[in-house]
Specification:
The chain has 91 residues and is mostly helical. The protein has five helices and no strands. The protein has one domain (6-73).
Length: 91
C-alpha cells in the first residue's frame, strides 16, 4: 500500500485497522483513518471506507488535535500553490 510505506503492514492488516477490528500498538482505527485521508486518492478513500462512514468519521477528526484546524485537512490534500476548485470550477 503506497500510503503506509513507512510501516510494515500488508493490505489485510490495514483493512482490519480501518474499521477497528485490529490494533497494533498505537496503530488503531483513528491512525488508519487519518493515514488514508492524508495520502489516498478520494476514490480509494470512498472505496475502502464507504461514503457514509467517511462522513461520520470526518466530523470528529476535523475538530480534534490530530488534524488541528478543520481546514487543515483541506490544506493537506493540496500541493503547495495548488488552487482548490470546488463545484464552481476555475475562475
Amino acid at each position: 500500500m503506497p500510503y503506509v510505506w513507512d510501516y510494515d503492514l500488508d493490505v489485510h492488516q490495514f483493512r482490519r485497522l480501518l474499521p477497528g477490528d485490529l490494533v497494533i500498538g498505537r496503530l488503531d482505527r483513528t491512525w488508519a483513518t487519518v493515514r488514508l485521508l492524508e495520502y489516498a486518492p478520494y476514490r480509494e478513500i470512498v472505496r475502502m471506507m464507504g461514503f457514509r462512514d467517511l462522513v461520520r468519521r470526518l466530523a470528529p477528526l476535523s475538530s480534534s488535535s490530530i488534524l488541528g484546524r478543520p481546514e487543515s485537512l483541506r490544506e493537506r490534500r493540496r500541493a503547495p500553490g495548488e488552487r482548490l476548485f470546488l463545484l464552481a470550477g476555475p475562475g
